[in-house]
Design a protein that fits this description.
By secondary structure, the protein is mostly helical. The chain has five helices and three strands; from the N terminus they run H-H-H-H-H-E-E-E. It has a three-stranded antiparallel beta sheet, covered by helices on one side. Helix 1 packs antiparallel against helix 5 and helix 4 packs antiparallel against helix 5.
C-alpha cells in the first residue's frame, strides 16, 4: 500500500509540473519556488500547535487547489503558479514520507512517525 500511495503522489507531482508547463514562466521558477511552502514551518518557533496549523495550511492539497482555481477564475497566472507550487510541494513531501502534522510533535504525521 505504501508504494501505491507513493506512485499516486508521484503522479500528482507530475501533474503539477505539467500544469506549470502550461504557464508562461521560465522553468527555473519551479525549481526556485518548490521549497517555498516550507515557510509554514516557521510557526514551530511559537509552539507545536501553531506550527502544525501553519505547516498544514501550506501543505494541504485542498488549499492548493482553491488557490489554483482562484487564479484560473481571476485569469491570474501568478496565483495559478502559487497553487501549482503548493500542490507539487505537498505531493513531493508525501512522496518522501512527510505528511500533515499533528499538534503534539513535528514528527507525528498522518502518514506515521517521521524517521521510523
Amino acid at each position: 500500500m505504501k508504494n501505491l500511495i507513493r506512485l499516486e503522489e508521484l503522479a500528482m507531482l507530475a501533474l503539477s509540473i505539467y500544469g506549470f508547463s502550461l504557464l508562461p514562466f521560465a522553468w527555473w521558477w519551479y525549481l526556485v519556488l518548490i521549497l517555498a511552502p516550507d515557510i509554514g514551518m516557521i510557526g514551530y518557533l511559537v509552539n507545536t500547535r501553531v506550527g502544525a496549523a501553519s505547516y498544514n495550511l501550506f501543505h494541504h492539497k485542498g488549499v492548493a487547489i482553491v488557490v489554483y482555481v482562484a487564479g484560473w477564475y481571476l485569469q491570474n497566472e501568478t496565483v495559478q503558479l502559487a497553487g501549482l507550487i503548493l500542490f507539487g510541494h505537498s505531493s513531493l513531501d508525501r512522496l518522501l514520507g512527510y505528511g500533515l502534522k499533528y499538534n503534539d510533535s513535528f514528527q507525528h504525521t498522518h502518514l506515521g512517525k517521521i524517521g521510523k
